[in-house]
Design goal:
246 residues; Amidase signature (AS) enzymes; 7 helices; 7 strands; 12% strand
Length: 246
């Protein structure tokens, strides 16, 4: 099984280049054939150019050197629209959210922004005008929400890791509610790394972040730049028997 650790080891020992990893990620996405996973997917040529530049720089001790990452689309990535699955809300930020900046500093490559229940207020993953991501295990099951595209991106393997968010403490709605974390992960047989809440910003309330991962082993290889604890490692049998919309 491919993990963050094995991908990084391949980059470091030269058995795979970062460009090869990125090209394989896009190839898996095309083969999976689910356009509803991403709301915004960066052009492959653009990401490959970034990969080549990162390869030329060398690892420099970066814990995620060349790892492809998908970001839930209510977290800012500079130059890519943030929609929260609501076209009327969409805007293009000029700078990265703190978690994205730290991931990039650790060598990760953002490949796109993933689908979600609108404003992260849903449990089934079916409340988005951008389509419903398929459950990566069984197409007749809903993907779970609100991080539907995020869990599907990891389970279907265009992304090795992803970033999604809870809301501030004591707010039990949207991404902060336990089902919003667990539903998509369990339905994709994925595990999660839970990050600590970030402090509020004077400019705007922060979008806080926790990246689900493909396995506990993968999750434990998350960078020290994001203090975390491993949570929610379900089995495939945990997929909820709720039929997908037709």
């Amino acid at each position: 099984m491919t993990t963050l650790t094995s991908l990084l080891a391949a980059h470091l020992d030269g058995s795979a280049t970062i460009s090869q990893t990125i090209a394989a990620s896009y190839a898996r996405h095309r083969a999976h054939g689910d356009d509803a996973i991403f709301i915004t997917l960066r052009p492959e040529a653009e990401v490959l150019a970034e990969a080549e530049a990162l390869q030329a720089e060398g690892p420099r001790g970066r814990a995620l050197w060349g790892i492809p990452v998908a970001v839930k689309d209510n977290i800012d990535v500079a130059g890519l629209p943030t929609t929260a699955a609501c076209p009327a809300f969409a805007f293009t930020p000029a700078r990265d959210a703190t978690v994205v900046a730290r991931l990039r500093a650790a060598g990760a490559i953002v490949i796109g922004k993933t689908n979600l229940d609108q404003f992260a207020t849903g449990l089934n993953g079916t409340r988005s005008p951008y389509g419903v991501p398929r459950n990566a295990l069984r197409a007749d099951l809903v993907p779970g929400g609100s991080s539907s595209g995020s869990a599907s991106a990891v389970a279907a393997a265009p992304s090795a890791a992803l970033v999604r968010n809870p809301k501030p403490r004591r707010v039990r709605s949207g991404s902060s509610a336990p089902p919003a974390r667990r539903m998509p992960l369990r339905r994709a047989a994925a595990a999660a790394v839970t990050g600590r809440p970030a402090p509020r910003s004077a400019a705007r309330p922060p979008l806080q972040h926790r990246p689900p991962a493909r396995s506990v082993r993968l999750a434990r290889s998350a960078p020290r730049a994001m203090p975390s604890r491993v949570r929610h490692a379900p089995s495939r049998a945990a997929a909820t028997r709720m039929t997908a919309p037709r």
